[in-house]
Specification:
This protein is an alpha+beta fold. The chain is built from 7 helices and 13 strands. It is globular, with a radius of gyration of 25 Å.
């Protein structure tokens, strides 16, 4: 009986010490903030977010229709060359004055083994401008009604009735003509035959098919491209893998994953570079990963990026069974 009493006392003392330590740390943090305030970078970001959303006034139906008409049109985005670039992206965005939205995204990825791969996403939805932002753009409630993916000839349907907020910038004039910014990506007006706007008119019908099987829950363009990338890697000697890792990150993982993730955040909340220490198994899997030098202001991005990085695969090595630890600077911007 005595031993049980002693153990309970020990646990009580331990809990008390932990609580006392937490209170001391909290007091120090609060004292420092009261004396010097939040770090300037973090304070600026919090204040900016607060100002952006604090005074939002919902558009009435007349203004909503007006904004739809202002941004309506056929818009395209292009990155890289489909014939020569490791990663090339093409996006086709049709915004209708009645709110209906059609998008087709095509990624051409030339794998490390030289084989070209194509990934396609087709989606239909509805956009309703909700309010304006201080820069003159718009916050738009957007619902993806149906979407489908084509990965290596296999077609499946993705999440439906999914809601999100699009940040749509007002149409500005650039050196190459008008620009419409959607979620921090610049789209330009299509200038050809509207009937030939989408690369394959039959693609639009895919989103409406009810006979398709469901995609895995994690399905996205980034998810599929990582799977294809993993299948195309050849083994390398142990001494050469460090260089191969850095090349894969910059050439593939950055445009396929990090660039897409960055679009969700205020640019100030995205780090320039992430200093990563990771351990790889002989098969190329990440068995341990630490992010050194993380900042509070980029924490939301960092948490998601690190989680994704743990799933990245690299070339196997065939000349050793030892794990390999690497320090890598991952350039995000």
């Amino acid at each position: 009986m005595q031993s049980h009493v002693n153990r309970r006392k020990y646990k009580s003392y331990k809990s008390g010490l932990l609580l006392l330590g937490f209170l001391v740390v909290s007091w120090i943090l609060i004292t420092n903030i009261n004396k010097s305030g939040l770090p300037a970078e973090l304070a600026g970001l919090i204040n900016a977010d607060y100002e952006n959303f604090r005074n939002l006034k919902q558009f009435d139906s007349v203004r909503t229709e007006e904004v739809r008409g202002l941004v309506a049109g056929f818009w395209t985005y292009a990155e890289g060359d489909a014939q020569s670039s490791p990663v090339a992206k093409r996006e086709y965005l049709e915004l209708n004055a009645n709110g209906m939205v059609w998008t087709v995204k095509i990624w051409n990825v030339r794998m490390p083994d030289g084989e070209p791969r194509t990934l396609t996403q087709v989606a239909m939805g509805y956009m309703s401008p909700y309010s304006g932002d201080p820069s003159g753009g718009y916050y738009c409630e957007t619902r993806t009604i149906r979407q489908a993916y084509i990965f290596e000839g296999d077609t499946c349907y993705g999440a439906s009735q999914a809601d999100e907020i699009w940040e749509v910038g007002h149409i500005s004039s650039g050196a190459a003509g008008p620009v419409l910014t959607v979620n921090r990506r610049d789209y330009r007006p299509y200038v050809g035959d509207i009937k030939a706007f989408f690369p394959d008119g039959g693609l639009l019908e895919i989103a409406d098919k009810i006979t398709l099987s469901a995609c895995p829950a994690a399905a996205s363009m980034s998810w599929a491209s990582k799977k294809l990338l993993a299948r195309s890697m050849n083994a390398v000697p142990f001494f050469a893998r460090a260089g191969a890792v850095e090349s894969l990150i910059q050439t593939y993982y950055k445009p396929l994953v990090l660039d897409e993730l960055s679009r969700r955040y205020d640019p100030r909340a995205v780090p320039e570079v992430m200093d990563i220490r990771m351990t790889l198994s002989p098969e190329g899997a990440v068995t341990d990963l630490k992010y050194r030098g993380a900042k509070v202001v980029t924490k939301r991005f960092d948490d998601l990026a690190v989680l994704d990085m743990k799933s990245w695969l690299y070339p196997a090595v065939g000349d050793t069974d030892d794990p390999q630890t690497l320090d890598v600077k991952v350039r995000v911007k």
